[in-house]
Amino acid sequence: MDGSMPRHHAARVEAAIASGQAARSALVASWRRSSRLHHLDPAGRSEPLRLSDAELRQARERIAPLLAAAQGAMDRLYQAVGASGCCVLLADGEGVPVDRRGTPADDSTFQSWGLWTGALWSEEHEGTNGIGTCVVEQRPLTIDRDQHFFTRNTLLSCTAVPIYDHEAAFAGVLDVSSCRADRTDAFSSLIALAAGEAARRIEADLFRRAFAHARIVLTQAADGSCSGLVAVDADDLVIGATRTARAALGIAPGRPMQPVPAADLLGGEPGHDHLDGSQRAVLQRALLRAGGNVSAAARALGVSRATLHRKLKRFELKH
């Protein structure tokens, strides 16, 4: 990187901010936050700050469920993109990578750029970048090379996707960063698709783990595609829903759900028939195993006798 590059990039960033483009461009709005809100200099050369080992352990402990749910998806994503000079990072809600996958041959490069576990990649510290800007805007995005705020980060191409927890609250970021100069637009689009699918897998696994004792039901959008997951307890109450499902069902994200009767929430939805069919089968099996004894069947299902009677009447099952 020649001596004129930092000055040229910094001048371009400052000119874009001064031009008022922030009102029309999300990128320039991020540059403006970096400069005016966080008082960063695009030509700054200081390396990214890092947590201590103890602080990193604490950060990992705070998001232990997300870390556990992400392992398989991160492995598969890395298998797909690792050979092309990419690393995969999982960052917490503060923009700190807490886990990563990378090719040993590229590790020294990423380490020299500070793209490593424990580094502080929030906009406050690193200006516009994939992880930090995703934390602020909570949407999938790519920050490619000279779209970064700091000149020292303009060799990186970073694609980041937000991850939401079982209560549809923002939980962290899945990031794929490249250190290769030959990354094409077509390949970047494939990375964005792969990262998005991996993030949805992580969310689904996190949701299933959080509601391990509930029945998980797929909800469907009007076009027939899967629009999310809901958790239904033994009393036929919806007790949880993913962000996508909440959006489809009109439920506010980011907070615990108040239990809602499944029939009230899912009635008329394409997934309702499937829900009813599965419940009917469960009830029939419980009655058969109990020899028609309603009290015994209720105990086996973990519901009250009154609840079971209500379900039997609903599904017109004789006992």
Distance between the termini: 80 Å
CATH class of the largest domain: Alpha Beta
Radius of gyration (CA) equals 24 Å
Which topology of the largest domain does CATH recognise?
Answer: Beta-Lactamase
Q: Based on Cα principal axes, name the global outline.
A: elongated
Q: How helix-rich are the residues, as a percent range?
A: 40-55%
Q: What's the structural domain tally?
A: 2
Which ranges are low-confidence, i.e. pLDDT below 50, for 5 or more consecutive residues? 268-275
The number of distinct β-strands equals: 9
pLDDT averaged residue by residue: 88
Strand content: 15-25%
Describe the protein in words:
Helix content is 47%, strand content 17%. It has 319 residues and is α+β, with helices and mostly antiparallel strands. It has two domains: 4-209, Beta-Lactamase; 215-314, no CATH class. The strands form two sheets. Strands 2-1-5-4-3 form a five-stranded antiparallel beta sheet, sandwiched between helices. Strands 6-7-8-9 form a four-stranded antiparallel beta sheet. A hairpin with a 5-residue loop joins β6 (215-220) and β7. The protein is elongated.
